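Figure caption, in words: inputs first, then the predicted bound structure.
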Amino acid sequence: MSKKIRRSLSAAREITDMVLAHYMSAVQAHQESRWVAWCTAVAPPSEILYSMGIQPLFPENYACVATVMRTMSKAFEISESHGLSRDLCSYARGVMGFVLGGEAPLGGMEKPDILISTKNVCLSYLKWWQLMAHTLQRPLYVIDCPRIISEIEESHLRYVSEQLERLVLRLEKITGRTLDKDKLKEALELSSKAAELWRRVLGLRKARPCPVGVTDSSAAMFPLVASAGTMEAVEYYEKLLDEVSERVEAGTGVIEDEKFRLLLSGIPYWHHLDLFNYLKNRYGAVFVYELYTATWGITSLNSTRPFESLAFKMLYNPTNMPPKWAEEWIAGIVKDFDIDGIVLLSSRSCKATSINNLVIHRVLRDKYGIPSVVIEADHTDHRDYSDAEIKAKLDTFMEILGSKSHMRPANR
Amino acid sequence: MTANGAVDKFRELFETRDAIAAEWKNRGKKTIGCISIYTPEEVIYAAESLPVGILGGTKSFAKANVYLPSFSCSFICGFLEKLLENEYRYLDLVTLPSLCDSIWGFYSIWKQISSNPEIYLLHYPSKRSGEAIKYFTKEVEKFKNFLEKFTGKEISKKALEIAVDVYNENRRLLKRLYMLRKSESPPIFGFEALEVVLSSMTTPKTLHNELLKELLTDLAARQEYPEGEVRLLISGHILDNTDILRVVEGAGGLVVADDLDSGSRYFWSLVENTHNPIENVSQRYLNLPSPYGPNVKGRIKHLTDMIKEFNVEGVVFLTRRFCDPYLFDHPILEQVLKQLGVPFLHLEHAYPLAKASLRTRVEAFIEMLR
Ligand code: SF4
Ligand code: SF4
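Bound structure (iron/sulfur cluster present):
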């Protein structure tokens, strides 16, 4: 029985260069006297910024890149020595270490002229951004997003879109550049197109064997995070869609002998991405969907109503939606993608994505009969990571899944 | 360290808060749990209901830990534990302002596991711009409409005005009490002042007002003054029991002021007028100095004002472990105090309290200040 590991997608391998180019583009922006904005990564108003020639950078992404490059340790020490508790979001702690003078990879992040927070995911989106703005002595603009408790209502949309319009006024005033409405319309169309292509790519993972694994998909979401609203992102996802479609047609999977199809919830532990290979090699288990990567591109945009549409995108993200919505969303994915089990990755320093995992685990089991396992570590801070313990927990889970699959009808 | 009898009544009110609320409910009225400081309590009062300040509780979190992970703050753990222990049977409703991820997490968890009591989430904006003020005012208005349905009582403008008066009176009286602590020998201990404020969060306000007036008279006649060698200020979240302050004051400190949710921040500012009570009340709550607002300036101002006004010699920051909002502000506040030359001690704490190590650290700090 061969379990030959396929090479990763060539489109995913391109990401390294795109990341480098992205951080360079901020340097270039400053050379051209254009502004740089540090933005939160979930549904930032990139479409507006790109239309105004402002280059967004994403500290969360930078933290993730720095973790993969194994350059975070010193940064953590620096931020701790400045009084930041180890219990706080490790993305924040890492980036603060760089902001406070730690040696930063890729030449560091070009300093911002403004910081923009969407405050639609977690409190760190407010407090971390405040701390950066305070430390760097730069202005902060927060777009305050209400939590959704049943449905997104007219009043929510109005509140958020008013704030977006005010952001534009403010940017126009301080940069002296006006927002070109046609450019904005075009940016929304491009952003929407990229999102749609990404959804189609993710949809192709319904195929057996699954053509894209979690590592590739975590890399390939980068253009949607960094370049929503640009042609570059659309071209990237067109290419990606072609490559993945070919794989599906050829019946090429992440592994040929796919035994288990898993769903990932939570932020990958960037310092131990090999955990995914462990499951793949040892159990033939493939992640066919991640709630994390699906968060980007979850909705389309209507370019005729740009502000309202961007407001909707901000509010409509899984951490901001009510528990009932999240539960049904997950159950729907499990069904559509024929998923055997769910791995809920908790991060000790990220309550927003982790605090209710124990309850989600129960609800999935009791209400839907879906098996899941809750793993606890930190998404960026590798220092307390216990590889053996985590693998042991996953081993037990896989054994349970294995014993269940014996009871399945043979056509599966 | 000996307590004087003057605040015994408040201690008793605080210790019997569950019984008081249960009794209220037995009279056919609603009791509504809330995070006192950020919930417009006037609206609840105007609906003839009792707002009951939610407090974390400090016992074991055995039941709560079935649902909450190890990295949850003790406030949310304690609250959930108490709910699961059925000690909050009397609550008809819980109102939570959307302050932090723990509260939103708690909301999601409770929604999944129970519907009794029901939870009402109130959006608390992180901005103070025109849109934010308008939005929050609408939120409070919506809450009012909800309460009218929920309690079956119409909330008139008149009722709101009366509520504002009652609440403002409580605030003024509490402030008068605090002002006495500016004196060189304050008439009460910090832990006693905390008992007075905590009981205000759980006791019907009119009763509390009466007792406060008596207290102020009693204190004027107080003979015995608490002893302490160093004037301290305590800064932090809701301190829901007196244990830590007793440790601090047992070690030779005298707490003369605070920057606490269950302290000065709860009552320092008034609802300025009542032309449009909902709007006026909303504005007051939105402008509280807190870690949930647009910047740390408000907190810095309140903290430094208190330090100056109360002649504070040292600050003890008390932060619950895993409490993101306060932990994020901490480096900035430390910086401010360093610049001011005010010594400080940062205690991150969890429950059960590690009293012995707390005491050692506090003693060392006070030793340094002597
Ligand atoms: S969602 Fe979690 S990891 Fe991301 S910024 Fe917020 S706290 Fe940090
Ligand atoms: S503010 Fe802090 S202590 Fe209070 S609920 Fe939030 S995390 Fe917990």
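The mean pLDDT of chain A is 95.
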